[in-house]
Write a structure and sequence with these properties.
alpha/beta, Rossmann fold, 6-stranded mixed sheet, 6 helices
Length: 172
Amino acid sequence: MKINKKNLFINSLTVLLAWFAFGLSASAQPKIAVLDYELRDLTVLPGVPEEIARTASVKTMLEEELGKAGYEIVLIPREAQTQATAGFGYLFDHHDAAAQLGQKYNADYVLVGRLHKPSFLFVYLMAHLVDVKKQQLVADYLSEVKGGDKKLTRKGVESLVVKINETFKSLN
């Protein structure tokens, strides 16, 4: 029996490429949509412009840090998020609604956040990780940030990403 070296090479190459492609898809990071953060300011002087700006910056910081960690970021337009909510905290408290929003944009997970400010001295960065397919809360995160400096807020965001990484490692 004569072995055709060209066919053997092509078959081997095909198997190798299929194995490589399967390995990449099996280890691919999930697609995460990060929603706009909401400010829950319980201080005697709520709605300070600096705090509103800090709250708005958290989403961008999270997207940057998650991107550095290798996650694919799914962008959901602000208008779509506004239409999906029935008021302050709605998507944070209603995981099914957050999941349905993420599903429209082909996300695997949705990260819904809140900046909770009980004091002028510190804030809590809160986040709910919602599984889009199961429409369920996967994890609830909290990171305390002392002070209003942008660098400290970034450290709080980095802390959230470490916790998110740990969650995905435990899911695999």
